[in-house]
Amino acid sequence: MAIAHHLNIYYSQVNPPANLSVNSLEFSAHRLSAASVILSADSRQVYREFDIGTAKPSESDQQAVPHRLVDICEPTETLTVADYQQQAQGAIAQVHQAGNQFLLLVGGTGLYLNAIVKGLKIPKVAPCAELRSQLTQLGQSHCYDLLRQVDPQAIQRIHPNDQIRTLRALEVFYVTGQPISSQQGENPPHYPILYIGLACEAEALRSRIVTRTHQMVEAGFMDEVADLIRKYGADLPLLKTLGYAEMQQHLNGELSLAQAIDLTVQHTCQFAKRQRTWFRKEPSIQWFHADSSDLVAQVWAQVNRFIQSNDLLAKS
């Protein structure tokens, strides 16, 4: 929870939507304010047409509680962390100006979350299509090796298969001549923030991932991937991301459906483990067990304590 004049921000951090559901928390927002707004901090939900594989909020969910930073980009566009930060800060300002009292920042993309909560200072380097094209032709493995040479600190935060962030880090290096990791500082917002995380045991998390992956397939995930390939081509960077890459391999005949599902589960579990490691390093997160029968009550009790301890209602 944070306050900037009349703006209160409740900030919730969770593992990816494929792993843990935050709907019960998100849609209890009306307990705080009928004018609550949810701000997405998911790096793929910003893209239109990438719906099932990103666990994007449904239209009915978005009608129930207003969402921002969902479906703001075309699949062929590039949204950098700096772009996200600018748009998110603009959305927060709009919420404030509209007189709304509470805003929830929800998601699992660490850099997006830190861009707002910690006020990351991000290199303002515009995407360079020609450079990206040249790097893409080298292949992800080669590009990752290049990044390892020029910015070994960056690869500690970037997975070897993460083409989008690998290209961005190399782009910043070649344009500025300096590693992206050396150009990132912090300028935290002046308001206090309640930082909440959901966690569960590894086996329970894996079970959730298996269930979620099968639900995605049953909901038409393969059709979504096939349609995206038809419209934008198989080389679209977003189609190389978690879930989409494995389904594309199935559609290409490289994997059976069962193999694609198993591989998606495996990669999602690996991603969740890395993400858990990332967030465990943040001492200000207050963790709650996702399988608690009274999870919502626990969280909102903490929210109310935070409101009272910071005298937020008196200031709003």
Automatic annotation (TrEMBL):
SUPFAM superfamilies: P-loop containing nucleoside triphosphate hydrolases (SSF52540). ATP binds at N15, P16, P17, A18, N19, L20, S21, V22. Its cofactor is Mg(2+). GO terms for molecular function: ATP binding; tRNA dimethylallyltransferase activity. Signal peptide: none annotated. InterPro entries: Dimethylallyltransferase, IPT, P-loop_NTPase. It holds the Pfam family IPPT. GO terms for biological process: tRNA modification. Gene3D superfamilies: 1.10.20.140, P-loop containing nucleotide triphosphate hydrolases. The record marks T109, R132 as: Interaction with substrate tRNA. Its EC number is 2.5.1.75. It catalyses: adenosine(37) in tRNA + dimethylallyl diphosphate = N(6)-dimethylallyladenosine(37) in tRNA + diphosphate. Keywords: ATP-binding, Magnesium, Nucleotide-binding, Transferase, tRNA processing. The keyword Kinase does not apply. Residues 42-45 are annotated as: Interaction with substrate tRNA. The keyword tRNA processing applies. Catalyzes the transfer of a dimethylallyl group onto the adenine at position 37 in tRNAs that read codons beginning with uridine, leading to the formation of N6-(dimethylallyl)adenosine (i(6)A). Monomer. PANTHER family: TRNA DIMETHYLALLYLTRANSFERASE. Belongs to the IPP transferase family. This is tRNA dimethylallyltransferase. It comes from Phormidesmis priestleyi Ana.
